[in-house]
Specification:
The protein is mainly alpha-helical and 76 residues long. The protein has 2 helices and 2 strands. The two termini are 22 Å apart.
């Protein structure tokens, strides 16, 4: 349960979904999107606006830039 592990899992999910979309129709527009955040295990909540969420969002934006895709991230 680390930020790097979260990013690796998220990236695999997004790329898998994009592959399925492009397999069906090559011209379908795609976006690299995320609403990933960390989890407060003590309170069982997802603290939106936490520093960790900002770090994940920055990494997601970087990954979208790496793949030359438009990006969208949720959060504060």
């Amino acid at each position: 349960m680390s930020l790097a592990g979260t990013l690796v899992t998220h990236n695999a999910e997004v790329l898998g979904g994009l592959r399925l979309i492009k397999k069906k129709r090559q011209t379908t527009p795609a976006i690299y999107a995320s609403s990933t955040t960390n989890m407060d295990l003590r309170l069982a909540t997802s603290p939106v606006g936490s520093p960790e969420m900002g770090m994940i969002n920055a990494a997601v934006a970087f990954m979208a830039q790496y793949y030359s895709l438009p990006s969208w991230v949720a959060g504060a």
